[in-house]
Amino acid sequence: MSITAETAQEHKNDPAVLCCRLEAGNQIQPANLEDPAIFDDLVDSGLLNLDGCLKISQVLGATLTKTCDSLSPITADAVDKIQEEEEEAPALEAAPEEAPAPAPAVSVAGPVSGGTLKIHIGEGKEINIEIPMGFSGGNGVAVAPVAAPAEMKDEQNAEEPAKVVRSVTRKHYAISEVKRGPETKIDGTVLYIREGIEEEAVASQELVHELKLDIITPDKYNTYSETIMDVQPIAAKEGEDEIGSGVTRVLDGVIMMVTGTDDNGVQIGEFGSSEGILEENIMWNRPGAPDKGEIFIKTEVTIKEGTNMERPGPLAAHAATDVITQEIREALKKLEDDSLVVNTETFEQVRRPGKKKVVIVKEIMGQGAMHDNLILPVEPVGVLGAKPNVDLGNVPVVVSPVEVLDGCIHALTCIGPASKEMSRHYWREPLVLETLHDPEVDLCGVILVGSPQINSEKFYVSKRVGMTCEAMDVDGAFVTTEGFGNNHIDFASHIEQIGMRGISVVGMSFCAKQGALVVGNKYMTNMVDNNKSEGGIENEVLACNTLCHEDAIRALNMLKVQMNGGKVKAAEKQWNPNVKANNVELISNVTGKPIELVPNETSLPMSKKRKEKYS
Amino acid sequence: MSMQTILLKQHIGAPCEPVVAAGDQVQRGTLIAKPAGLGANIHASVSGKVAAVTETAIQIEADAEQPDDFVSIEGETNLELLKAAGLVGMGGAGFPTAVKLNVDLKGGYILVNAAECEPVLEHNMQQIRTKADMTVRGIKYIMEICNADHGVIAIKAKHEKEVAILNEAIKGDDKLSIHLLPDLYPMGEERAVVREVLGTLLDPTQLPSAADAVVINVETVLRAAEAIELHRPAITKNITVIGKLKGGPQAHVFMDVPVGTTVGELIERAGGIDGEYGEIILGGPFTGSATTLDTPITKTTGGIIVTQPFEDLKGKKVGLLVCACGGNENRMRDIAAKMNGEVISVQKCKQAAEIKGALKCENPGNCPGQAQKCINFKKDGCEDIIIGNCSDCTNTVMGSAPKLGLAVHHQTDHVLQTVGKEVMRYLTTSKKLEEAPAEAPAQESPEPHKAEAEKPAVKYTATVNDGMLRIHIEEGKDINIEFPFH
């Protein structure tokens, strides 16, 4: 449909196509032009062929030399002359929508010459000027409305050294075997779990009626499991250390896995769940998934019938499992033999003054039931001491990136397992790791924000996100989300709230085909799709479409481009996996580092469910 | 003679209040209802006996013998005469004329709408052929009432004969002129007339007075002259009856039909319906709506159209493109139902602005593009679409819908096919006229510009407070401020 002068300016480099019949002799105005936003649809429908089409800036003001019908691309032979690219007239950029002519909102030049402050205003409305009367020469900084370039930070502070504000050291203990025994202990590389611990786990939770403990070694990957509710690292803080500082001990080669149903055998999270043969339903080595070869300590929790879709049910399953995990943590804490430490790594949060300041906003599920997250437990990915973000009202909580990597989130997720972030995901969060280690940016923190059920609450929390970013005075922000659909409403709103404050922002979500965004706004120009699945769908394979290293580097590069004044090419209308492939190639060409893409579900044996549902 | 049903609401405003009761004898021209609020007097269009007074109408049993004369109206001034006559806009809007003309145009324009824009109607042209002189005198009376210096008759260039007659009738009066219009729909829309003649595009909420003009229908002008010269109340209407009639589809024009005559009587006078038919339309193909044989005509009725049976879409999924130029959504749904289509998508033209419950086009006859709407229809799963658009928009729809596999039907198809005219599809006529005939002055096509108030000079205030000099400038251009400091 016809466009306004403002839209024409935004799309000045897009093809000029007549929206309606225009007769020869008429001067081409924005109102004669079709909105470039629908060109993809038009081209797809065969209605439009843009070959040889001039740009909008080249035709505005030119006279049409032959009568053309609607949807005619304007070509060089149809206009009297091709308009020269005009110099960037500051005029059009700031024009308010209601302005009848493309006039500048206000253009001011205010040099101080001699003893006189001279202000010239070309044209403007509602101008307020305040000048202190005692103002006595020297520098003329009182001339307010001249937009000061905000980019001076870099040069000014370039000399300030980077500073480590916080660090966590992980000590890794290898486990090669998990056995049952009379007490829970770690003996060399063998982990013993006390026999009968299941009863205590059941007794700890009123809603838990049964708990089965299975030790899944690689030879049992081909067995059936109920839906996987969580994958957790087994880690404990050393001594009095708190999450986000000091030393954390972690077991390698083994993870906790929570699964379960209700009394009636209904999956916790029925309707998009990952029950089935384990090796057919786990995308190995995703940040949030088990690595191939690891041993799973798998609980199969049965909860009171009908509580699977309410808040207390899934939480009870997690809490009961944590009774077992906690006993392992205690055993881990007791280890005194440092020779068992196979590897030590340190995560430092380095602040880099003078570099572009960025923040990561992680939208986490907060609708209730299994869509909850326990924030800041006493032990990594524990339960004790943590606050569910639903109870916190889903408002933004600022944490250190190092706290994220140290297990400050215990995730309750289940429905839509392919795009949900398990507890282990945060433990190895690729975007946090990548940004933390990038010497070109200054990662100041991670904002966790829940995704509430109710729309009004969604906007309530997104406004807080915007205000938090404003207070942090960041140059750029990432907004990540998990799942798709309902949460995209607040995801989009977070991006809008950040973008409207002039902060560069990149959004990350599973979208592709099935998760295509249903809402949008003008700040959602830089988006990274986390999809890995072949068909662009939620395939119910655990963690398949979650944020990976290859997504993190794309987002990081995209944000850097935007913060440095560059533009990201607009997305294509339809999902096209080649966009990702091209971007990965571009980045790898520039950095000189090859990027190996992770495999997707096609590398797994095909489950019966997947065969029936998705092929 | 028969029963005349005279409706109490024949105009914009509230229904009139009856001033007669059942059993009263009335003469042709007797005042039978007065306005309650905005409205216009209603007079008996026949002599006879009031048979009944209902909430909506007065029924008069007409005498067998009808007089030629009528009860005269009275008034001191011309405007009072128009008010007494119960004159309303006869183009269809029905706005009380005396209210509309009670304006001082300070030398502005009376724009006479003789576009007769709805296809197939012919009574306006017949009026010009038979009553040009009286019509022209009517223009002069109205110019005087409104203090207008110019009278312009807007008429389509294709009516060469009528244009020639009018040129003859206005000869020697340099205040009067003719503006020729291209043969497009719509040209008679009030703001389209203003734009075409004066080059000013009004907002849908603005009245022509914003451009120092009054737009008035050509038949209203004639009836004004009758009220002023003959003291004749508005009791008759010129009507075109056309369609699937015995004797052929050519137009039958009936001049001075008494208000209250039924649609059925007029169709009979035109020969009667010829066999199977689709619907009877009261009004024109674009803005009229379906009616019944016993419906009485009013002061605003223009056309009665009997159409051929509708095309049967056999339950196909249909999209409706509603715009201000054609039928409203109800009318479009009515047509879709009669065509046996299942409406699954309704789109509204981008330019159709809702003003006081009715749709008005922001720039009548100049298309804002329809490709997006057609894509929406396709996405919604439509197979066929029914559109009510103007010539230009219809042409745009044709630029995309057929390529998308959407079969296009226009709401006027069944009318135009009945009378053997080409249906609305592609546009072949230019929006601009090649060359105006020499005798028609003021033939310009200025680029429309928005009516806009004069820009004020720079308005500013300067105050000193708390040691601060505060300058506030509301609006201005090329402002220089110099401020010495020491």
Written description of the protein model:
The complex is a heterodimer of chains A (615) and B (486). Chain A has 615 residues and is of the alpha/beta class. Chain A folds into two domains: 1-94, Alpha-Beta Complex (Type Iii Antifreeze Protein Isoform Hplc 12); 168-600, no CATH class. Chain A is 23% helix and 25% strand. In chain A, strand 2 (112-113) and strand 3 form a beta hairpin. In chain A, helix 11 packs across helix 14. The longest helix of chain A has 23 residues, at 312-334. The two termini of chain A are 39 Å apart. Chain B has 486 residues and is α/β, with parallel strands linked by helices. Chain B has four domains: 1-71; 73-234, NADH-ubiquinone oxidoreductase 51kDa subunit (Rossmann fold); 236-306, Ubiquitin-like (UB roll); 317-418, 3-Layer(aba) Sandwich (Rossmann fold). Chain B contains eleven helices and 26 strands. A five-stranded mixed beta sheet of chain B has the order 14-13-17-15-16, with helices on both faces. In chain B, strand 25 and strand 26 (468-484) form a beta hairpin. The longest helix of chain B has 24 residues, at 123-146. Chain B is globular and about 80 Å long. The model of chain B is unreliable at 435-456 (pLDDT under 50). At the A-B interface, strand 3 of A face helix 9, helix 10 and strand 26 of B.
In DSSP terms (H or I, runs of 4 or more residues), the helix count of chain B works out at 11
What oligomeric state do these chains adopt? heterodimer
Low-confidence stretches of chain A: 86-114, 134-157
Q: Biggest sheet of chain B, strands in spatial order? A: 14-13-17-15-16
- Kindly report how far apart the N and C termini of chain A lie: 39 Å
GO molecular function (chain B): 4 iron, 4 sulfur cluster binding; electron transfer activity; metal ion binding
Keywords (chain B): 4Fe-4S, Electron transport, Iron, Iron-sulfur, Metal-binding, Repeat, Transport
Region (Disordered) (chain B): 433-457
Pfam family, one (chain B): Complex1_51K
